[in-house]
Every structure is written in structure tokens, then in C-alpha cells.
Specification:
Protein name: DUF255 domain-containing protein
Strand order of the largest sheet: 1-3-2-8-9
Domain Spermatogenesis-associated protein 20-like TRX: 21-102
CATH class: Alpha Beta
Pfam families: Thioredox_DsbH
Distance between the termini: 41 Å
Keywords: Redox-active center
CATH architecture: 3-Layer(aba) Sandwich
Organism: Larkinella humicola
Number of strands: 9
């Protein structure tokens, strides 16, 4: 009996192991594009740079929130895009390249997605046809970010203003603890 109790205790999942499982399934933009051709889904893109401090805070605090992770993984193809990466990106027949500019350059795809307003972090949302819905610049805390991803993911952006969604629809439909 004691052996059985010890065995059961040793096979229980540890709380820290459960936390490790709550991760966004990040893809490259090329992977998301290919998957979207077969199974259309909205796309969420985190446009960042290696030197961006607020990008790291969003990675650590916003993108690890279990409610955010769960909603993103169920409703979007999630992409991490380094705005200063040097590798070419080909999406269908379109090729995007790195543009050297002084000590730091930028990637053409990042500039296109951010409407030439290079600011980091910026999250960008694309519809199921890989067309831009909205770039949103700046650091966003998990509670507000959950409102944004449900507003866009649930197609509420085409039906009501965001302020109305936050105070009414979100409270009724997505009441989660964040």
C-alpha cells in the first residue's frame, strides 16, 4: 500500500511542469502562409527586434499567460517576425528582403506589415486571406491583449467598436481570469 502511494505521488504532474506546457505554438511566416493555404485561419504576428526591451517583457509576461496562450493556439497561426532579420522571405510570388540602413536595417516584410511605422513591439493581425486587419504598436499587458485577440479572433471588429466590445460583449462572452 505504501509503495502504491509513493508511486502515485511520484507520477503526479508538478505545477511548474504544467506552467511549462502553456506556450504559444510559434511558426515562421512561411509556415503560417503554407498552413493558411490548406486551412485558412487568422494570423497573429509578433514583430520584434533582438534589442527591444519591451518585446522581451511581452514574451515573458503577456505571451505566457494561460488564457492568452490558449486563445491564440486555438484561433490563430502565431508568428514571430524579427524586423531586422537578414534572410529573404518568400510568400507565394512575393519576395521580401533585408534593407541595410546605417548601423541597423529593417526587413521589407516588417515595413509592409507595420505600414512603414517601424515601432517595436508591434502585433499585427491578418485575416484568413492573409490580408492585414490591424497593426497594434507598443507593449500590451495580458488582460488588454486578451481583449484584443478575442475582439479580432471572434470577428467582433467587423460588428462593433472596440470600446463597446470591452464593456459589453467581452464581459458577457469571454469572462476569464487573467
Amino acid at each position: 500500500m505504501l509503495l502504491m502511494a509513493v508511486t502515485l505521488v511520484s507520477f503526479r504532474p508538478r505545477p511548474e511542469a504544467a506552467k511549462e506546457e502553456a506556450k504559444i505554438k510559434w511558426l515562421t511566416i512561411e509556415e503560417a502562409f503554407a498552413l493558411n493555404q490548406k486551412t485558412p485561419k487568422k494570423v497573429f504576428i509578433d514583430v520584434y527586434t533582438d534589442w527591444c526591451g519591451w518585446c522581451k517583457v511581452m514574451d515573458r509576461e503577456t505571451f505566457t499567460n494561460p488564457s492568452v496562450v490558449d486563445y491564440i493556439n486555438k484561433n490563430y497561426y502565431a508568428v514571430k517576425l524579427n524586423a531586422e532579420q537578414k534572410a529573404d522571405i518568400v510568400l507565394g510570388t512575393d519576395k521580401f528582403v533585408y534593407v541595410a540602413q546605417g548601423g541597423r536595417g529593417y526587413h521589407q516584410l516588417a515595413a509592409a506589415l507595420l505600414r512603414n511605422q517601424l515601432s517595436y513591439p508591434t502585433v499585427v493581425f491578418l485575416n484568413e486571406k492573409f490580408q492585414p486587419i490591424q497593426p497594434i504598436p507598443g507593449y500590451i499587458k495580458a488582460p488588454e491583449f486578451h481583449q484584443i485577440i478575442t475582439f479580432i479572433g471572434g470577428d467582433h471588429y467587423s460588428k462593433e467598436p472596440f470600446d463597446q466590445f470591452k464593456t459589453k460583449t467581452y464581459q458577457q462572452k469571454y469572462s476569464v481570469k487573467i
